[in-house]
Amino acid sequence: MDTILFIICAIVAILSGLNMILQKHPISSALSLVGVMGALAVLYLLLGAEFLAMAQMFVYAGAVMVLFIFVIMLLNMGRERASRKSWFAQIVGLPLVLAFLGILLFITKAALPPFRAVQFGTWVGGGAYNIGRLLFTTYLLPFEVISVVVLIAIVGAVILARKEID
Amino acid sequence: MNYYVVSVIKIVIVFAIFMTALAYLQWVERKVLGHIQTRTGPLRVGPHGLLQPLADVFKLLTKEDLVPPYASKIFYLGAPFVAVVLSLISISVIPFGPKITVFGTTTYMQIGDVPISVLFVLAISSVSVYGVALAGWASNNKYSLLGGLRSSAQMISYELPLTLAIVAPLLLSNHLSFRAIADTQAGYYLGFIPHWNIFRCPFPQVFGFAIYLIAGFAETNRIPFDLPEAENELVAGYHTEYSSMKFACFFMAEYANMITITAIATLLFLGAWHPLFPGPYCDYFPTFCFLIAALIFFYGAANPARSRDRKTFPVFGLAMLVLAAIWAVPQFHFVTVPLWWFCAKVGGLLFAYIWVRGTLPRFRYDQLMRFAWTFLFPAALINLLLTALFVAVFKGC
Questions:
Q1: Cross-chain residue pair A69–B148, CB shorter than 8 Å
Q2: b/e per residue, B22-42, with b = 16+ CB within 10 A?
Q3: Given CB atoms, is B172 within the 8 Å cutoff of chain A?
Q4: Can you tell me the distance from the alpha carbon of B315 to that of B298, in angstroms, rounded to the nearest whole number?
Q5: Which of B223, B237, B215 is nearest to B151 (CA)?
Q6: Which residues have CB under 8 Å from A97's CB, separation 6+?
Q7: CB atoms within 10 A of CB B383
Q8: What's the gap between Cα B197 and its chain centre?
Q9: For B119-156, how does the pLDDT look when each residue is reduced to its tens digit (9 = 90+)?
Q10: Is B271:B197 a contact under the CB 8 Å cutoff?
Q11: How far apart are CA A123 and CA A48, in angstroms?
């Protein structure tokens, strides 16, 4: 059951991700991204990280993507038109992508511990209680720093919006 | 019994009851609104218009299904499905009663008991804005687009006070599951004040409840806040271009959201299925209520306002007597009494929704936004901070 769900959600996530890049219309791309996030949330749930799954849903799929779509609708963007490809991109593009993927693979292999097979439904520790405990003990400093950063961003946004009105 | 079999049975029961409730909520709304405005409401189809929802369904099914030529097809067709599916999904984590044992099978009166059900409902409600926004955008109509934009802005704005109002009772109950929160609200202070979160000791959630209800009106696009479909400005808002069953989907989604919002209010603030009075006689309170209803019906039949009341009211009175008899059987009390209290609270809140619709005029759009950001949001924040403070200081209360 878990494996079937995993395969379905993984396929949905990958297809939505590809669709996001390939679609010409901004709204289609944004909605494909929502599909990726929904599928990822189900994957988190399968791994036992229930709090993370729900946070993924209402922070990314809910708040962030709704704002994206809101802006796209507000500006009433149409289809993207393909620009004439520059000679630089045509010649160097593919080798650069391959090189980047190679570096990425190398780094992940070097930095991460050796892979183990994932067992579904064995890990319990993704509940709100454990996450809250970790946030307020082990990761207290990063948590507080992030909140200050977010506060700065909010203040900055308010100031920018103010100038626009005056 | 097998977990899957039990789940399927529960899903069928809940779905059937929920859909019937949706259809008849609309009938109740039209009736109540009619009487508020000294009209009679639906009266022609069936006795007292009771078959009106059925007639409406047939009418909507047989209407022509139009698709505007310049609409973007996929999103235009998908939006009603998104709206209705997301609004129906939340009911799956809402408990209606305690743990029960039927035919040797112990189960919860709830489709799925998820440890993070509050978060689940919040996640679904934050995603449900897509249905409305996409419908508005995909219709390729300026009124629809304006309606969709307004509703996305409104839902995003009012989700903040709504969520903050929900967090305060979570602090009191110390759980994230609706079932656990409901269980912490059993019992009474001094033997008569119920343990509901709205009366809860360190900091009673009266303000939280008020903020939640107001934000709930806005989340469901109901009348003082129904700007997304303000008919004098926007024709019908985001569903202007929709007809037939696709329109019905939006309609259903709105009513399903209403039921979900009131059910959550009941679970988080009004003590879920725990009764208002303590003591052994409280189990017979539902019977008493049904008997009074039956008496009113028989009195109405004896002094009929219309000639047909002479025939219909005795039937309704008999139905009430049958219900009273069912609720009087002590062997059924473990199911019937909690269910009655839950439905009574949800029904009372739904009646308040309809009442407000019949009473208040619509806000202007700038008033709506200013109200959300300059009053409701700070109020919810202060309520949350005070609750946190009181919970921290008076720990064992």
A1: no
A2: bbebbbbbbbbebeeeeeebb
A3: no
A4: 9
A5: B237
A6: none
A7: 24
A8: 19
A9: 888 888 888 888 888 888 888 787 888 878 888 788 88
A10: yes
A11: 6
Q: How confident is the model at residue B396 (pLDDT cuts 50, 70, 90)?
A: low
In this prediction the ipTM stands at: 0.78
Q: What is the pLDDT of residues B270-282, one digit of tens each?
A: 888 888 877 677 7
Q: What is the 3-state secondary structure (H, E, C) of B107-140?
A: EEECCCCCCCHHHHHHHHHHHCHHHHHHHHHHCC
**C-beta of residue A64 within 8 angstroms of C-beta of residue A76:** no
* CB contact (8 A) between residue B122 and residue A76: no
| Residue range B221-240, pLDDT digits in tens | 777 777 666 666 666 777 77
Residues of chain A found within 8 Å of residue B137, distances taken between Cβ atoms: 27, 69, 73
CB B121 within 8 Å of CB B260: yes
Which residue among B123, B136, B152 places its CB closest to the CB of A66? B152
The residue with tokens 């919002």 is: B261
> What's the pLDDT tens digit per position in A82-117?
666 677 777 888 889 899 999 998 888 887 777 677
B209 token code pair: 């409840």
Kindly determine whether residue B123 and residue A50, on different chains, have CB atoms separated by under 8 Å. no
Tokens of A144: 């507080």
β-bridge partners, B109: B97
Q: How far is CA B155 from the centre of its chain?
A: 17
